[in-house]
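1st attempt posting a full record on here, be nice pls
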Amino acid sequence: MTGPDRSRVLAVDPVAPTRAALRTAADTLRAGGVVALPTETFYGLAVAALDAGSVRRIFELKGRPDSKPLLVLVGSVAMTETVAHVTPSARDLMTRYWPGALTLVLPARATVPSVVTAGTGTLGVRLSSHPVARGLVELLAEPVTAPSANPNGLAPPTTAAGVLDHFPEGVDLIPAARVAAGRGRRAGHRGTAWEHPAVADEAVVKVSGVIQAGGQSARMGGRPKALIELGGRPIIERVLAALAPAVDDVLVVTNTPELYAFLELPMVGDVYPDHGSLGGIYSGLEAAGGAAALTVACDMPFLHPDVVKLVAARAGEADVVLPRVGSRLETMHAVYDKACLPYIAERLVAGRLKIVDFFERVRVIEIAEDEVARFRDPRIVFMNVNTPDDLERARVLAAELG
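the predicted structure (as tokens):
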């Protein structure tokens, strides 16, 4: 199938799709076509995952870099075993959280095309709780791809109309059914559990650390706050020293990478320039190698390693994990799961840049102020150096704290 002149929409019952409707979609996939599939999170682009030629159509449609692997939807644990090596710990997670939005990253079998894994040797697999997605995979009797149905960098759609806006042509079939129709055992759970190929008996949530260094430093006269020396070293080095022990890797979000080359860390620019802290959170989360990203600001000189670990340890329990101090949520000392990406993107595209606005769409865990206070006064831990007065106060504190 070479691609339709116009994407075709097919009305489907989201709770009890008919076998005829599912057969139409399955036949489309068998013919090498692309089906935009509703899932429990957003619409995904489905092709037969073991057909390398069909998979390449996904990359062409999305404008997706071929260095980014694709996750696949499976119809059962048994189907998972045909494409990935399933360890006892992974099987336990499947029992507890499938069907649902939990993606497990497992060692891939040799039968999986390298275009799917991007040469990583691993494969993200999920058993969807959505009746249309799950029914289609079961009828097809083989895995399908499921990256979000949007061009690279745009917001993932949650309706058939949204898919058509992105792809008026190029998608062969769009079953029109609402997203999140499924009610599986843990359908509300979102997240990713990672199993490193070399540690087959231990499933862990990989957390990337992200330092946000994209601000304008307007109140400091344009002087990069992160590079101001405090206690004999730049503030950003103090931030890195507190962050690095609690995470698996670290990257920096900045539009001036030449200023931070001395850190010898990966750096990414803003996907949505001039969209504030929310844009920075999105950029870091999208680029993160882990299932979640612990995001901190570059101008927080008194971060405490144990407080960072306190937050990182809750990754995987919710989509957002962050401390609360009084009435303030510490959004720039928080873990964000990749499940947040479509909801953040919605806000960015709409110009709604208040970070907490997307929290209504995800699961949030708040860490109490007294838990933070066991290690250091929260007002000091989360202090930002925004103004010259803040800097003078920070110099005094640095001398006291060492």
